[in-house]
Amino acid sequence: MIDHTSFDVKDYQQSLDFYDKTLSLLGYERLMTFEIPEANFAGYGSKERARPSFWISSGGNEAEAVGNARGLHVSFVAPTVEAIQQWYQTCLDNGGTCNGQPGPRPMYHPGYYGAFVLDPNGWRIEACLHDYSAS
Questions:
Q1: What pTM does this model have?
Q2: Distance (Å, whole) CA 26 – CA 53
Q3: What burial letters (b/e) apply to 5-37, b meaning 16+ CB within 10 Å?
Q4: What is the spatial distance between Cα 110 and Cα 123, in angstroms, rounded to a whole number?
């Protein structure tokens, strides 16, 4: 249903470093970057899809607050529980803030496992797995 998601960041270079390091743990990479006079853009995704589905940019409306959209969060599909745990710790090590430690979330649905972080801009992000089974 959704083709891509994007949001502006406060510090573009810091955000590039943050997302390059953290999304690689989930199997994603920066597929595209470009600059126009108004802003810089970076697009992330999987090689299989061959086009970005998550974007960050340095532009935007200066009157809008970055990282302050009530209720908005972006969730990235993770390949394993271990990847989520590594992603979570790497986020914290690179300027992110805990917004929910890694663990099962059976209230969402059986088999849901996720971790929640505020990125260095204050955006709410998550890594999740839908077929977790506690052994």
A1: 0.91
A2: 14
A3: eebbbeebeebbebbeebbebbbbebbeeeeee
A4: 27
Kindly calculate the radius of gyration of the chain based on its CA atoms and give it in whole angstroms. 15
Q: State how far the Cα of 109 lies from the Cα of 107, in Å rounded to an integer.
A: 6
**What is the Cα–Cα distance from 124 to 135, expressed in whole angstroms?**
29
Sign of CA dihedral 62, 68, 71, 73: positive
The encoded tokens of residue 21 equal: 């390091």
How far apart are alpha carbons 97 and 127 in whole angstroms? 14
Q: How many CA atoms lie within 13 A of 62 on its CB side?
A: 2
> From CA 7, how far away is CA 43, in angstroms rounded?
11
Burial of 96 (0-12, 13-18, 19+ CB in 10 A): buried
pLDDT in tens, 41-81: 999 999 888 899 999 999 866 666 767 777 789 999 999 99
